Amino acid sequence: MWDRFLRACRREPVDATPVWFMRQAGRYMPEYRKIRERFTLLEICKQPELATEVTLQPVLAHGVDAAILFADILLPLEPMGAPFEFVAGEGPRIFEPVRDRKGVERLRVIDPEEDLAYVMQAIRGIRRELDGKTPLIGFAGAPFTLASYLIEGGKSSQFIKTKSLMYGEPELWGQLMTKLSEVTRLYLLAQVAAGAQALQVFDSWVGQLSAADYREFIQPYLKPVFDALKQTKVPVIHFGTDTSTLLEIQKETGGDVIGADWRIPLDVVRRRLGSDVAIQGNLDPHLLNAPRERLHAGVRAVLREAGSAPGHIFNLGHGIMPHTPPAAVKEVTELVHEWTAH
Amino acid sequence: MWDRFLRACRREPVDATPVWFMRQAGRYMPEYRKIRERFTLLEICKQPELATEVTLQPVLAHGVDAAILFADILLPLEPMGAPFEFVAGEGPRIFEPVRDRKGVERLRVIDPEEDLAYVMQAIRGIRRELDGKTPLIGFAGAPFTLASYLIEGGKSSQFIKTKSLMYGEPELWGQLMTKLSEVTRLYLLAQVAAGAQALQVFDSWVGQLSAADYREFIQPYLKPVFDALKQTKVPVIHFGTDTSTLLEIQKETGGDVIGADWRIPLDVVRRRLGSDVAIQGNLDPHLLNAPRERLHAGVRAVLREAGSAPGHIFNLGHGIMPHTPPAAVKEVTELVHEWTAH
After folding, report:
1. Cis peptide before B315 (omega within 30 of 0)
2. Is B40 on the interface with A (CB under 8 A)?
């Protein structure tokens, strides 16, 4: 069933539970590493034929039920006026972190059709190649997660500068988040116009905040993004890690599907969120490196906890890690299909 | 009331809510930085007069209701056979990480009275100086948190090698955790014998695990530690971060007080854990750097959520950060006392 993923997003009955993996295209695949020998990550993102090829790799290799655009959540930052590079073994480095009024004012709200034309071309190319056989997910980083990279200048574990700006200059925070909200909204709408059939909003690091802070500093800027996407009729997945204290407020903020990491059993997620939203997750990505028996037990536990009501999309609790054996990814895809087929 | 902290641990009525801060002695204090100009962190830990002086600094400066031994959770690793150093800006580095059977077998179960005699001397010295006016908390890292440092070789964000050993070689994991459990137990018992009047078990990183993994890989080794401490009659605080999916199983594992980070409102903690355990926490440490009004609102929220039932110890949700103004720490201590006095 080609649209099993889209049907599950809408909580319609499916012939088997759909499966895809966050970071399903990437370093763990030899096909990808071969391309990376010749091109940087950003070069792949910016050349639609390469982005198309890489996006298709896991679809061809593993038979997953959705393709996800090969891109990076930080891509909009460059045309906004905050260019960056990827440093090996370290992650992204923003050349000029944004930490004051001048920094925020310098950021421009982009026109994604023009400023990220290469993404839209990739989406059109991928749709052509997929030829209606597998749906394509587009995605973007949520305003908080983008803000944290902009302010910290890269990856962070404690988000000291981010919270300092948030608590210390709430008005400036609001200006920054408003710009990022606008960019995220426009970028996702453009992806749908180009052909994305579903979307995922990555608010990967928002689990650093308490629910009270979420309500004050995040929701006012994130809700408009989800609200604007409703008109597209495209299902939207709302994902974060470490969100066990935020699930209800995330649902209230928006999304047809709520993604949870491996810390929250999906039966708890179901109980807390009710049956009017689909759920996605949530195998611990480390289990893909575990012995077979333990991996199988982990997959079975996720399916058991997800239950039999419609509206479960099988995924990891976070992205695939670089040292994952591709065979395990394929095996899990097949097992989930086999064990849930009816 | 000198024993307000100990009384709160036992859920007895108090004249005001007791306050102490994780990492209340440390880099944010000018008095401490002055000593660090001449001595490394490990040198301070190993010279009882210096450890005593540093332990007393926040008691004298801020009037907190408990002193906590100045030490590092990794100290037992050196006599166990896994020496380490602290690298500026990076954290601890274990010279020879433990990743295989040989590594685990090489680790010895220490005799803390002898192998960590300097800690016991510091405890005796601090007790003398405190002279019954303020109680002293001893502490240790929990087996999982120690194991993660041993296996990763330092700080980690994803715990890839730790989970790989845990899932991949559960028997070897059990051997390692058994040794660490034994060491933690002996070390804490020795601290009580030397004069510690309360204990905190830091399982700082255990929130990386699902509850199912906690039950299989953590509890069998951690519960014996808490069980053994019962005989001492000394109250024990069980602390971790990111534990909102683990609270109940942590309580089941042991401790008179459960510590929570800022992500879980304390009224939720109370509701989930019931009234037969005390709670500690949980101001976001970043708020100590926030404007006054916001800091005050944060403190008020913690007190409101903690409610009026006995058994709340005010603390942060994690350690004080290096750039914290000491005046804010003193102010929070005084505000909590003032706002809860009766």
Report:
1. no
2. no
How far is Cα A19 from Cα B232, in angstroms, rounded to an integer?
A: 52
Closest Cα in chain A to B158: A286
Sign of CA dihedral A98, A103, A104, A106: negative
Contact state of B210 with A262 under an 8 Å Cβ cutoff: yes
How much is the CA Rg of chain A, to the nearest whole Å? 19
Nearest chain B residue to A156, by CA: B157
Chain A residues within an 8 Å CB radius of B299 = none
Find all residues with CB under 8 Å of A280, minimum gap 6, and list them. Answer: A237, A239, A257, A258, A259, A260, A312, A313, A314, A315
Q: How many CB pairs under 8 A join A and B?
A: 79
Q: How many CB atoms lie within 10 A of CB A38?
A: 9
Distance (Å) of CA A205 to CA A149, A221, A261, B159: 10, 15, 12, 17
Residues of A in contact with B269 (CB under 8 A): none
pLDDT at A24 over 90: yes
Identify the CA nearest to A77 among candidates A48, A50, A51, A106: A106
Kindly tell me if the per-residue pLDDT of A342 is higher than 90: no
Listed residue (A39, A44, A69, A72) closest to A55, CA to CA: A69
Q: Which of A161, A169, A244 to mutate to test the interface with B (most CBs of B within 10 A)?
A: A244
| A10 vs A12: CA distance, rounded Å | 6
- Annotated catalytic residue A101: no
Q: What does the DSSP assignment read for B180-240?
A: HHHHHHHHHHHHHHHT-SEEEEE-TTGGGS-HHHIIIIIHHHHHHHHHHHHTTT--EEEE-
pLDDT digits (tens, 9 = 90+) for B289-299: 999 999 999 99
Q: In 3-state terms, what secondary structure has residue B23?
A: coil
Given pLDDT bands bounded at 50, 70 and 90, which one contains residue A77? very high
Q: How large is the ipTM?
A: 0.91
| A1 pLDDT higher than 90 | no
Q: For the packed helices B143-152 and B170-194, what is the interaxial angle rounded to 10 degrees?
A: 120
CB proximity A265 to B under 8 Å: yes
Counting as low any pLDDT under 50, the low residues of chain B are: none
Say what angle helices A160-168 and A143-152 make with each other, to 10 degrees.
110
- Tens digit of pLDDT for each residue in B226-283? 999 999 999 999 999 999 999 999 999 999 999 999 999 999 999 999 999 999 999 9
Contact B212 A262 (CB under 8 A): no
pLDDT digits (tens, 9 = 90+) for B157-179: 889 999 999 999 999 999 999 99
Q: Are B82 and B107 in contact (CB under 8 A)?
A: yes
**Residue written as tokens 């906690």?**
B214
Closest Cα of chain B to A245: distance in Å?
6
